[in-house]
Amino acid sequence: MDSFKEVLWDPKVIEETSMAEIEEHIGNMGLDRREKEVIKRIIHTTGDLNLADKVRFHPKAVKAGLQALKNGASVYTDVNMLRAGINLKKLRQYGGSVYCKVHRPEVSEQAKSMGITRSAAAMRMFGNQLNNQLVAVGNAPTALFEVLQMVQKGLTKPSLIIGIPVGFVGAAQSKELLTEFEIPYITLPGTRGGSPVAAAAVNALIYMLEEYHG
């Protein structure tokens, strides 16, 4: 039982110690300073140091996300799990909020009538509300496909798309398509991803706002 004495119990100390260890492993990789903060938060969430060189950024991604959030942008998510993982209290300090419609009855009805997933239907219902906002997709590739289709048609233009859906059907393809668009993005190619990863990327941007001056 003496081993319990060695356990770190303070959440703040745990996070600081974890981040220090991550920094030790990736600090010499020549990463962009702000992009590195996003990567560190993702690694902290997944416990996977191998992701350090896997996350992909549009050249304007971090700046676009920070500027939008600084201007009061909100975050629109595909699922409530992702919504719950975002630091809403911190985001509200800058005038933003987090939205998800996936469980609303009207979304379910539209999904059935159109033969699409609820996550895709929810994004379609947001429509031009996504203009100049952040879109975060961590679960459903169909939600990302839907957003990209709306962008392609000129129906909406988010400031940043954090597209990190997970799975073996459509996830890799949706993320590959995302990288072909000019719109700023953050993604993790392949089948890996998930709501915690997407939330980590959003939170990393939120935590950087205090030191961001444009």
In brief:
The protein is of the alpha/beta class and 214 residues long. It contains ten helices and six strands.
Report on this structure.
It is globular, with a radius of gyration of 17 Å. With 214 residues, it is an alpha/beta fold. It has a single domain, classed as Rossmann fold. Strands 1-6-5-4-2-3 form a 6-stranded mixed β-sheet, with helices on both faces. It starts with 10 loop residues before the first helix and ends in a 6-residue tail after the last helix. Helix 8 runs parallel beside helix 9. Strand 4, helix 8 and strand 5 form a beta-alpha-beta unit. The model has no long low-confidence stretch (mean pLDDT 95). Helix content is 49%, strand content 8%.
What's the total helix number? 10
The coarse silhouette is: globular
Which structural class fits the helix and strand makeup?
A: alpha/beta
Tell me the β content. Answer: 5-15%
Order of helices and strands: HHEHEHHEHHEHEHEH
Key traits:
Rossmann fold, alpha/beta, 6 strands, 49% helix, 6-stranded mixed β-sheet, globular, single chain, 214 residues
Give the arrangement of secondary structure elements.
Layout: H1 11-26, H2 33-46, E1 56-57, H3 61-70, E2 75-77, H4 80-85, H5 88-92, E3 98-99, H6 105-114, H7 118-126, E4 134-137, H8 141-152, E5 160-163, H9 171-178, E6 185-187, H10 195-208
Parallel strand pairs: 2-3, 2-4, 4-5, 5-6
Antiparallel strand pairs: 1-6
Helix pairs in contact: 1-2, 2-10, 6-7, 7-8, 8-9
